[in-house]
Design brief:
The structure is a homodimer.
Chain A: H1 4-17, H2 30-37, H3 41-53, E1 57-60, E2 64-67, H4 70-73, H5 83-90, E3 94-104, H6 108-114, E4 122-131, E5 134-144, H7 153-157, H8 160-167, E6 172-183, H9 186-191, E7 199-209, E8 214-222, E9 229-234
Antiparallel strand pairs in A: 1-2, 3-4, 4-5, 5-8, 6-7, 7-8
Helix pairs in contact in A: 1-3, 2-3
Chain A binds a DNA duplex through helix 3.
DNA sequence: AAGTGGTCTAGACCACGCG
DNA sequence: GCGTGGTCTAGACCACTTG
């Protein structure tokens, strides 16, 4: 996991994030970086391309690479970030309440959503996310038992992602997110502080492993006024 | 613009999209592709990495590259796609009504948003997007005159993006999107068929050129029940 | 052991921006 | 003309999967 280009990438990311590299300044040229890090140009280019992809820099032909200030103000919620990682970043008091945690036989809906056979069992986890004394987000997670044999309340209160990746060594590959706005349900109103909102923002998340097997289905239900999604996109030709 | 790896990428994309390459099947190995296309391995790898980035394939170490079926069902609205490109893809009757088109002196709000000096003038375009006889989306565009000297009603009814990229030769580099849900305004209610919804989904778009200069600010205001945002994300380590 | 993708290297030529 | 990033090549070694 510790490739040269990732180490260089991470070094530059932290330099940008803690202000050592200021926005709108020019990075050293690829040639200079080659010498600084004692690696080939291709390795430097891999690191720089990652930086560009993630919105840290912009490369301009004939001129150089420049530090952007996009990521400074707003961190992107796009990409795959868990609630724990997120709340650590925004640095606000937050809390997770586990309402349900059980191993269930999936119904029609889940069999379709998770691409299951009838015998497969599924962990159902229902959690409420509290941010600054308000119950804002209702998370409903469904994970295949096949991949996650055991799940405890303590794990759910901390971070399921962390447990899966670090303890079980399962590698998340990619995910598809679908965001819609729908009518709130009785369940939403029971668990959340909705304050009269009858709409709810739903982020449906289909999580796949590295080997392309579908692993988890999650619904993240947000109170509309507290929802905010930031995305960084490059035009691809 | 016509690099080898882009040609290979595009060939494979169309092969996947029209079903010649079926999902869950294996692509030829990088070595085989090298021979098929008569290029070096690096060139093949660039094409495959693009495919992976855009959710077409998944590469698995030691096994090969596999076609995903993500893009088949849902096209991602993530990334930078104009309304015209989008409506062509979903293939439904759609229509654009231009309500305002004028060169204005920017107010405080715009000066801050677009990073302007006081003399700069700005094109303001207000358009309603009609899909299947319903007025669903209100688009408010603000473009710097410095970059776009002329704008006509015809251009706005077609596609501003297309005009800018093809006619003016301006290269869009990247964009930052912020999605929120807010109270609808009087303007929303006047122009759109809101059917009693008092919330509105707002996609704020900050568009930058290749040379990192901020170029355009757009607000896309959607009726909640018709809004849908699809995102494909890879976990980055 | 053979085949796969992942990383790294060294060298070449090109297109672009700028002085 | 020089320095910049963009593309392409050829070859090497590694880590992983599968038979």
């Amino acid at each position: 996991m510790n490739s040269k280009y990732l180490r260089i990438y991470n070094e530059i990311v932290t330099a940008i994030e803690n202000g050592k590299l200021k926005s709108n300044t020019k990075l050293p040229s690829e040639n200079e970086l080659m010498n600084q890090y004692n690696v080939s140009r291709d390795t430097i280019r891999k690191a720089l391309n990652l930086l560009a992809q993630n919105g840290y820099i912009q490369k301009v032909r004939g001129k150089g690479s420049f530090v952007l200030d996009i990521n400074r103000f707003d961190f992107p919620v796009s990409g795959l970030v868990s609630f724990k990682e997120l709340s650590e970043k925004i640095n606000r008091k937050s809390n997770t309440i586990v309402h349900e945690l059980e191993l269930i036989r999936p119904d029609e809906f889940l069999i379709k959503r998770l691409d299951l056979s009838v015998e497969d069992k599924v962990w159902k986890v229902v959690r409420v996310r509290e941010i600054g004394d308000e119950k804002i987000i209702l998370d409903k997670d469904f994970l295949k038992e096949k991949f996650v044999p055991l799940l405890t309340k303590t794990i759910c209160e901390d971070s399921i992602y962390e447990y899966i990746e670090n303890k079980l060594g399962i590698k998340i590959g990619f995910a598809k997110k679908v965001i819609t706005v729908e009518e709130s349900t009785e369940e939403d109103r029971r668990y959340l502080d909705l304050e009269g909102y009858n709409n709810i923002v739903i982020v449906r998340n289909y999580v796949y492993l590295d080997d392309t097997s579908l692993f988890q289905y999650t619904e993240s239900r947000h109170r509309p006024d507290k929802f905010r999604f930031v995305d960084f996109a490059r035009r691809s030709y």
